[in-house]
């Protein structure tokens, strides 16, 4: 009798252990458990920790609630200004409703990936090349809105979408390089012309000041000579001061006026011939 009771107890314990092992499930902290009982969704979602289900009746599916980083494959497209580009992006999303993510869509990861690729091609066709290169923040917001609209019904929330790289044809790269070079050359010429204008104004003011003081011109000449003489490999030609010439002209004595020359008659002619010619 006792042996039968012991055997029955051991059998019951074994059955219980087998049942617990078959029914026991562990849900991790970043997961949520969705239970289907005979194919029907249970309204309660199992939280993290230890939980039990009915073996062969219930089916537990775990859903990861972490933020998923998914690269979007590079998409070829033509911009609104008819430039062929190749754009790739990255998308960050997470599941906010585990039940919706399992029931409403077959594979929410694949669905989000396809929607991201379609939206990326659409945003390329609606944008100009300058927007893709310099106004990415606005395009990221528009792309996020396009993906997030259908994803809400799947229990998925789009956190952020970033355009990573924009690949251009080699001909377009060379054209943009020439454009940038021409723009920089234009700005350099404008700056140089502005400097010339300012220098000419200052030189004009300096010339007016020097015209009032003639000695200032000589001092400036001497300064220039000193600056040129600092170069050992140059030949210095010193001009003769104009003021010294003027001083010498003023110091020279005035010359006496010479009487006008009297015309002499040609040789070989006498007075008679002269009188005859006068007649």
Oligomer: single chain
Strand order, largest beta sheet: 3-2-5
Global geometry? rod-shaped
Uncertain spans, ≥5 residues at pLDDT below 50? 265-279
Question: How many β-strand stretches?
Answer: 8
Enumerate how many helices there are, as a single number. 9
| Largest sheet report | 3 strands, antiparallel
SS-derived structural category: alpha+beta
Mean pLDDT: 80
Q: Distance N terminus to C terminus?
A: 196 Å
Estimated radius of gyration: 51 Å
Strand content: 15-25%
Give the ordered list of helices and strands. HEEEEEEEHHHHEHHHH
Structure in words:
The chain is α+β, with helices and mostly antiparallel strands. 52% of the residues lie in helices and 23% in strands. It contains 9 helices and 8 strands. The protein has helices spanning 2-23, 98-103, 108-125, 129-134, 136-151, 170-212, 214-229, 242-251, 271-278; strands spanning 24-27, 31-37, 40-46, 49-52, 58-64, 68-78, 84-95, 156-167. The strands form 3 sheets. Strands 3-2-5 form a 3-stranded antiparallel β-sheet. The protein has a 3-stranded antiparallel β-sheet with strand order 6-7-8. A two-stranded antiparallel ribbon has the order 1-4. Strand 2 (31-37) and strand 3 (40-46) form a beta hairpin. The chain is rod-shaped. The model is unreliable at 265-279 (pLDDT under 50).
Annotation keywords:
single chain, 279 residues, alpha+beta, three-stranded antiparallel beta sheet, 9 helices, 23% strand, rod-shaped, disordered C terminus
Describe how the helices and strands are arranged.
Layout: H1 2-23, E1 24-27, E2 31-37, E3 40-46, E4 49-52, E5 58-64, E6 68-78, E7 84-95, H2 98-103, H3 108-125, H4 129-134, H5 136-151, E8 156-167, H6 170-212, H7 214-229, H8 242-251, H9 271-278
Antiparallel strand pairs: 1-4, 2-3, 2-5, 6-7, 7-8
Helix pairs in contact: 3-5, 6-7
